[in-house]
Amino acid sequence: MEENWKDRRYVARYNSLYATPQEEFLKCAELLRLGPEDRLIDFGCGNGDFLAVALKTVSSAMGLDLSENQLGQAALRFKGDNRVELKRSAFLDLAPGPRTFTKGFSRKALHHLTDPEKKTFFTRAGKYFEKKALFLLEDGIFDFERADLDRNWPGLMKDCEAYYGSAWERKKKDVSFCFKEEYPTGIKAWTAAFAAGGFKIIKRERRSSFYGKRINNHD
């Protein structure tokens, strides 16, 4: 997967086909209750679309991503803005320095980690968040656990067709690959991963049987 993000054509296709409308990111910012004193970290920040929304409010932000192409676009976007720092890093190599954060965000990124890796990631990440910090995850969250993927596959494909509508045929190969070869998982596994970092769920928004939002509070 890392090789794909080195390919400019892959990155351009992804940004075109899976770009998030700004109104969706505005809703995310509202759910995170962003304020002028907040320090945000965005895991899998891509070209900086959510950072651009958040920086209208927060005092500082850090964006982490593995793709040099995506970070290059973000760097041009935020050139001269000393409130934002961009770092190329794998999630399991997280090392943001001595700072702590009051808000965390990740969209369609952490499903690249296996379930054990998710626990490892949040165990490491948790120490960088202040008490009562909020973390918003928007990602693949199955209504069932990953071990039951094959049994639920026919219903999952029908749900995808209804969810994506006319765009489904263009996205079917990518989405199926994500389900099979990457690691979206069920609510129990996500909950356990967040708990390893001292987070507990305070709200869930279900958008389909395979996708949704979770807001988590750091103890």
Short description:
With 219 residues, the protein is of the alpha/beta class. The chain contains 8 helices and 9 strands.
Q: Which structural class is indicated by helix and strand composition?
A: alpha/beta
Mean of residue pLDDT values: 92
- Indicate the low-confidence ranges by residue numbers: none
Instruction: Describe the strand arrangement of the main beta sheet, using strand numbers.
Output: 3-2-1-4-5-9-8
* End-to-end C-alpha gap: 33 Å
- Please tell me the CATH architecture by its name: 3-Layer(aba) Sandwich
CATH top level is: Alpha Beta
CATH topology: Rossmann fold
Name of the CATH homologous superfamily: Vaccinia Virus protein VP39
Order of helices and strands: HHEHEHEEHEEHHEHEE
Using only C-alpha atoms, the radius of gyration works out to 17 Å
Number of helices: 8
Number of strands: 9
Biggest beta sheet summary: 7 strands, mixed
Strand content: 25-35%
Shape: globular
Give the % helix: 25-40%
